[in-house]
Design a protein that fits this description.
Keywords: Membrane, Transmembrane, Transmembrane helix. This is ABC transporter permease. Helix content is about 80%, strand content about 0%. α2 runs parallel beside α8. The chain has a two-stranded antiparallel sheet. It has about 300 residues and is mainly α. The radius of gyration is 24 Å and the shape is globular.
């Protein structure tokens, strides 16, 4: 009787574990993180909407004092102050989410190894490759879903201000116009891939937490300062004049975002999409390489195919 019972129940338990929806498990584990990030996104989204409403005051001021006084005078809603506000918003969107995504992914991935939870993962019917692929995909989807509305809202605000000529002239105007866009999401995916790679390679929680954003930052800096995007967007290459001292190794940063003001000042509004898509292509390619190396490292660590 006992042998019969064991024979009938064992396949059932195995089948239940094997067919348990992996996506549901990942979603359940990410819910607390998603709630925290959603609240932060909601607050910043409300701030962007509030700042967008201030452009009406800026336009009214320009109509009142004149275009020259609006751009070169000093008023609460003049071109200088409104552009500075837009720059401050851009600092929070352009690269900081990518660094946060890298740090969180590195922390969670390294934690799987550092807290010995990975031994439990290996004992399940789901392979380690599928388990980590589901977690990394879940993180990428979560971060992208939260960041994309902010990128669209910010871009809408910039285009509105640019079309009405409400921004200052010079590098600040070029920075807010060309910096945020598809490449912002590409940097986010780079951060997730860097976190996956460092967490799998280092297998420690806090070293991965530090190494992942550092790797993301360095790769982005080299891509921007080497002007690699211009190799794909070659018509813009002939428009760029000047090079900062130190070349690629003399990394210049707009706060946390790697930038090259000589490139930005040389671009025209029509160059926005070609430049963004070329840069995004390079960043996504590097992210894919990082993900590939992470899976190869995972295979070596576990011995699983």
């Amino acid at each position: 009787m006992s042998a019969t019972s064991d024979t009938t129940t064992s396949p059932t338990c195995h089948s239940t574990g094997e067919h348990r929806p992996l996506a549901r498990i990942v979603v359940r584990q990410l819910i607390p993180l998603a709630l925290v990030l959603f609240l932060a996104t909601l607050v910043f989204g409300a701030l962007l909407v509030h700042h967008y409403q201030q452009w009406a005051d800026a336009a009214a001021l320009r109509d009142h004092v004149g275009n020259h006084a609006y751009h070169f005078g000093r008023y609460p809603h003049d071109a200088h102050n409104t552009t500075a506000t837009l720059l401050a918003d851009g600092k929070r969107i352009a690269f900081l989410p990518a660094l946060c995504a890298a740090a969180i992914t590195g922390l969670l991935t390294g934690g799987e190894w550092g807290t010995r939870r990975f031994a439990l993962t290996l004992a399940q019917t789901v392979s380690a490759r599928r388990w980590f692929a589901a977690r990394w995909t879940g993180l990428a989807v979560l971060f992208t879903a939260l960041l994309l509305p902010l990128v669209m809202l910010y871009r809408f605000t910039v285009v509105h201000a640019f079309d009405l000529d409400l921004l200052t002239y010079g590098v600040d105007r070029q920075t807010v116009y060309f910096t945020v866009g598809p490449v912002t999401v590409a940097y986010l995916l780079l951060g997730v891939a860097a976190g996956a790679l460092t967490g799998t390679a280092l297998r420690r929680t806090w070293p991965s937490f530090v190494a992942a954003p550092a790797l993301t930052w360095l790769v982005a800096a080299v891509l921007v300062r080497s002007r690699a995007a211009l190799l794909l967007d070659f018509p813009a290459y002939s428009e760029v004049h000047g090079m900062h001292g130190g070349g690629v190794l003399g990394l210049q940063f707009y706060d946390l975002l790697p930038t090259d003001s000589y490139v930005l000042n040389s671009l025209q509004p029509g160059d926005y999409w070609p430049y963004q898509l070329a840069e995004s292509t390079l960043v996504v390619t590097v992210a894919a390489l990082f993900a590939l190396v992470a899976f190869r490292t995972l295979r070596r660590r576990t011995g699983q195919p």
